[in-house]
């Protein structure tokens, strides 16, 4: 079991987005990601401290004084992951049509196809954008359904102490699902089929998700994460599924 498959493909994704034939398809996803992450940083700095003070227990007991710093760190981690999840979903909801196009061009590059600007007519392009938007809404409903259970755990005494770890795993899975779905949807796979494919290679997929999550914590690098993750996920698809189908 190669746990480095996820990081390998994300690193390859960063290399791919700077290739001469692919750079022009990166600009819009990159611009969207810069705006979203700027808003995320601004919102986090300005608000989550007050929210944590409201959530944490009040009082002056000696055990609270000892426990408060630990709880502050744990709740801060959970809050950052929750905000990251929310803003990532928003970024991909807005950028889904452009991410799908980038994934298509990356796959053409990796498989030896000729990369050309999209020649689809206006009506077809609008139809594809609407379809991509509704696919993102379906994924959003799926994420909210699972994330709501993690959120409930965050407010249950004792269990809420380990809720940041649940948020961490959930966020990694969500990122893997989000980005790996782009190449799969380009091949007309529906949401259920995407889940089945990821379940076949669950550890590899989570490894990729953790890699994307880790990259978002690196200043400046995080602005390039969305297009790099789309490219890396497409490379992952080609290696793990598409190549196997052709054999």
The helix/strand class is mainly alpha
Q: Major sheet: size, sense and barrel closure?
A: none
Mean pLDDT: 78
How many independent structural domains?
A: 1
CA distance, first residue to last residue:
21 Å
Percent strand equals under 5%
Compact description:
The protein is mostly helical and 247 residues long. The protein has helices at 5-16, 27-55, 62-111, 122-153, 163-186, 191-200, 202-216, 225-246.
What are the SSEs and their pairings?
Layout lengths: L4 H12 L10 H29 L6 H50 L10 H32 L9 H24 L4 H10 L1 H15 L8 H22 L1
Describe the structure.
This protein is an all-alpha fold. The chain has one domain (5-246). The protein is built from eight helices and no strands. The chain has helices at residues 5-16, 27-55, 62-111, 122-153, 163-186, 191-200, 202-216, 225-246. The radius of gyration is 19 Å and the shape is elongated.
Please name the defining characteristics of this protein.
8 helices
